[in-house]
Specification:
CATH class of the largest domain in chain A: Alpha Beta
Oligomer: heterodimer
Number of domains of chain A: 2
CATH superfamily of the largest domain in chain B: Metalloenzyme, LuxS/M16 peptidase-like
CATH class of the largest domain in chain B: Alpha Beta
CATH architecture of the largest domain in chain A: 2-Layer Sandwich
Order of helices and strands of chain B: EEEHEEHEEHHHHHEHEEHHEEHHHHHE
Strand content of chain A: 15-25%
Radius of gyration of chain A: 23 Å
Distance between the termini of chain B: 57 Å
Strand order of the largest sheet of chain B: 1-2-8-3-7-6
Strand order of the largest sheet of chain A: 1-2-6-3-5-4
Largest sheet of chain B: 6 strands, mixed
Number of helices of chain B: 15
Helix content of chain A: 40-55%
Helix content of chain B: 40-55%
């Protein structure tokens, strides 16, 4: 497939990557800045989220309302959100409006006002979001699993605590912005009906004066990796499991995806078939791949009523362990068909492409081409996946449950 | 002309839009049936039936259905609403014939008793899953209070009791009554050949029965008015929903209504955003329309700390009163239209988006949704048309429902 992929790294360390898509009229950009929540001071957890919330509340010569109105009139569907390593700003719009949108975002990334009197409202929002997490047990169980599964600080989430949020001041906001909004390692990714050479020129002009290196995140502390139960009087028990898998940049990455696809890639996959279709144990059961820099896991989730929860956990663990006993060619063919469809359909969406390219660049230092990915998918066979499972067996499983009663984790 | 339509001899309506630059195609079977068409004693049958459609046919077991879809790498699913049950798949172009073969086959399901009994457990789990999501329960409760006995108030999931009581034969009777050719349209969009599609569909559905399947109880709902509170222990946030009558799905006023909803409650730059979200008074606030055949509701909603709910509701009522009295500013109208224009263009870039849009337009208006015509209709909205809308559907005549820790909203 002919792809028009481009890349340019500026002298200040900012990387611009682009994919021209002739068949669309829109364009989307993603800007990833090394200001994610691994960089937060421990006593001010939630700071990255507050900064993200404040970014668009006035920048350059425009007030909060002026900036919002102008971006709305350019038809920019947009957001600013903190991730683990990076704070991401993104906007999708009509291709012809992209240059003006980028100009406004240059103000946001380089000259945000971060008004002092807006810190309290942003803090209130963060406190409310934290409070509403109590009403979302399926989200809570996954965050708690992550906290136990990975070493600090890569086990963090974007929420703070009431204490850490209370400790955030206008000074700490401005300080975080000035320290971490730096070009070295920052990525701007654009996909759509774009003119890359013109984009290089525009980005060079807009971000030419930007300089500096953000401080690195703190070193990793070892993970607790202990199972646990959180009591809550709910109708369903939430079950979450994790065990180690091959990282994103490993040669085993696609084998890992293949194994997980056999477990949970579609409705004929093992977990859905055994747990839901045959036994009717739950509505929601899944396994997915989770990668965090050099660490990766297979993560499973199921929600099931209290009296069926133990059986659900037992059957799920049984299926995970059974995988190494044999895999049929038809199963692998189905996983390959699904991966191929996703790959091709991604080409229809500027936001999918822009996001995917940014992520690839951050994790791998380059953009994977469709042909390259297709070749890796084509290499999947029952034998290759079974051999992968010997290198990455099901072991060191931890489980977190939320519900009225704890469960017994099978050995 | 990229749009084509054809009605098969059995009454099945086919519509399609070719998009030569797309790399996939999407196909959907839209059945004009949903919770609003259920009789007493049938609550939840449309949704349960939707699940049962994937459990096998005379020539496929449940596992065969899932395997066949997965073998062609299809991205597929189904959903049930108050008015429609929809089965759809996105596939690479070379797999469209197989996708049609599977979809047309499963639309005449076997409804085997063993599968029925097992799948009932899955539905009961689904009901429990939503019971643990207060935002979802808030919506259910609020709609039930607003619509009262109007069929649009019927619950899609049903209750644990009503689903437990459903029999396989009841489901078969419902299916025979509602899943008939004249009550179904099939829409396709993307990379495909129209003539081949018509041939495939004609062959695959040759034996489908055509029986008259009218929809009853089409009328406009207005809500009881007043303040209603549903207290729920163990929830952290308070949810508040404000309903007022708005144009029904098929009305030409839907364009003006969309502009109003965006100016009132869009994520960015709206009245609700500036008055509630930006100052941190709520966790979230939005406005959207809940429309059906013959009846529509504009729903303004927010969730927040219970201690602030009453004050926030007063702010919402002030905003609604202000717009009712003074309309929207020229700036607000232009801003909403600019947002819409960008979204219409971007949504039309994926075959699935186009497929759903042309289906919706056909189901409600027997009309092709041409993007340029849509953009022109949105562009025609102005302060006069906003005033006409507000006079016909006043924002200040509303029904308020709270769901959460509070026993009342005063």
């Amino acid at each position: 497939m002919l792809q028009q992929l481009h890349q340019h790294t500026f002298a200040n360390g900012l990387t611009l990557i682009g994919e021209r898509m002739d068949h669309v009229r829109s364009a989307t950009f993603y800007a990833m800045i090394p200001a994610g929540y691994t960089h937060e001071p421990e006593a001010q957890r939630g700071l990255a989220g507050i900064v993200a919330e404040l970014l668009s509340r006035g920048a350059g010569s425009r007030t909060s309302m002026e900036l919002a109105l102008e971006l709305d009139n350019l038809g920019a569907d947009r957001g600013e959100s903190p991730g683990l390593f990076n704070l991401t700003c993104y906007a999708g719009t009509l291709a012809r409006n992209l240059p003006q949108v980028l100009e406004l975002y240059a103000d946001v990334l380089l000259r945000a006002h971060l008004p002092e009197d807006e810190v309290d409202p942003a803090r209130e929002l963060a406190l409310q979001e934290l409070q509403s997490l109590d009403d979302s047990p399926s989200e809570m169980v996954m965050l708690e699993l992550k906290r136990r599964n990975y070493p600090a600080p890569i086990n963090r989430n974007s929420y703070g605590t009431p204490e850490s949020l209370a400790a955030i001041t206008p000074a700490s906001v401005k300080n975080y912005y000035s320290e971490h909004f730096r070009p070295q390692g920052a990525i701007i990714s654009v996909a759509g009906n774009i003119d890359f050479p013109a984009l290089v020129e525009q980005i060079g002009t807009l971000f030419g004066e930007w300089s500096g290196v953000a401080p690195a995140a703190s070193a990793l502390v070892s993970a607790t990796r202990e199972s646990g139960h959180i009591h809550k009087e709910t109708q369903q028990v939430q079950i979450a499991l994790a065990f180690p898998s091959a990282p994103f940049d490993s040669p085993d990455f696609y084998q890992a995806r293949g194994a997980i696809g056999i477990l949970s890639g579609g409705m004929s996959a093992r977990l859905f078939t055994e747990v839901r279709e045959k036994r009717g144990l739950c509505y929601s059961v899944s396994a997915s791949y989770d990668s965090v820099k050099d660490h990766a896991s297979v993560v499973c989730h199921a929600g099931t009523s209290v009296d069926r929860a133990q059986e659900t956990l037992d059957v799920t663990m049984q299926e995970l362990r059974k995988l190494k006993e044999g895999i049929a060619q038809d199963e692998v063919d189905r996983v390959k068909a699904s991966l191929k469809t996703s790959l091709i359909m991604q080409q229809e969406s500027t936001s999918s492409r822009a996001g995917s390219m940014a992520s690839d660049w951050f994790h791998l230092g380059r953009s994977g081409t469709i042909d390259e990915i297709q070749t890796a998918i084509d290499a999947l066979t029952p034998k290759s996946i079974l051999e992968y499972l010997e290198r990455y067996p099901v072991r060191d499983v931890i489980a977190v449950t939320i519900g009225p009663k704890p469960l017994v984790i099978p050995e | 002309m990229p749009f084509q339509m054809f009605k098969l001899p059995n009454g099945l309506q086919l519509i399609g839009e070719t998009i030569p630059t797309s790399r996939s195609c999407s196909v959907g079977f839209f059945v004009r049936t949903g919770s609003r068409d259920e009789n007493a004693g049938e609550s939840g049958v449309s949704h349960f039936l939707e699940h049962m459609m994937f459990k096998g046919t005379p020539r496929r077991s449940a596992l065969d259905v899932n395997r066949d879809f997965d073998r062609i790498g299809a991205s597929y699913n189904a959903y049930t609403s108050e008015e429609h049950t929809v089965y759809y798949a996105a596939v690479l172009p070379e797999y469209l014939p197989q996708a049609i073969d599977i979809l047309a086959d499963i639309l005449r399901p076997s409804l085997r008793v063993d599968d029925f009994d097992t799948e009932k457990k899955v539905i009961l789990e689904e009901i429990k899953m939503y019971e643990d999501v207060p935002g979802s329960m808030a919506w259910e409760n609020a709609r039930s209070i607003y619509y009262g006995k109007h069929p649009l108030g019927n619950s899609i999931l049903g209750t644990s009791a009503s689903v437990a009581a459903l029999s396989r034969d009841q489901m078969q009777a419902y299916f025979d009554r509602r899943y008939v050719s004249s009550n179904i349209i099939v829409a396709v969009a993307g990379q495909f050949e129209w003539e081949s599609f018509v041939d495939l569909m004609g062959t695959a559905t040759a034996t489908w029965p055509d029986v008259y399947a009218p929809r009853e109880g089409i009328s406009e709902a207005h809500g009881p008015g007043g303040l209603h509170s549903v207290a729920k222990e163990g929830t952290a946030q308070q949810h508040v929903l404000v309903f007022n009558t708005c144009p029904p799905a098929e009305s030409m006023l839907r364009y003006v209504n969309s502009v109003l909803a965006i100016a009132l409650g869009d994520d960015s730059g709206s009245r609700l955003h500036w008055s509630l979200v930006d100052p941190g008074k709520v966790e979230s606030a939005s406005c959207g329309s809940d429309t059906g055949q013959g009846s529509g509701a504009l729903v303004t909603t927010f969730s927040c700390d219970p201690a602030e709910a009453v004050a926030n509701l007063a702010i919402v009522q002030e905003v609604l009163a202000d717009i009712q009295k003074n309309g929207l500013s020229e700036q607000e109208i232009a801003q909403a239209k600019n947002k819409i224009a960008s979204r219409v263009v971007r949504a039309s870039e994926r075959p699935m988006g186009r497929m759903r849009t042309i289906a919706g337009s056909w189901l409600y208006n027997n009309e092709y949704s041409d993007p340029d015509v849509e953009l022109a209709r949105f562009d025609a909205v102005n302060s006069r048309s906003i005033r006409e809308l507000l006079d016909l559907y006043p924002l200040t005549t509303n029904t308020v429902v709270g769901y959460g820790p509070l026993a009342d909203l005063k």
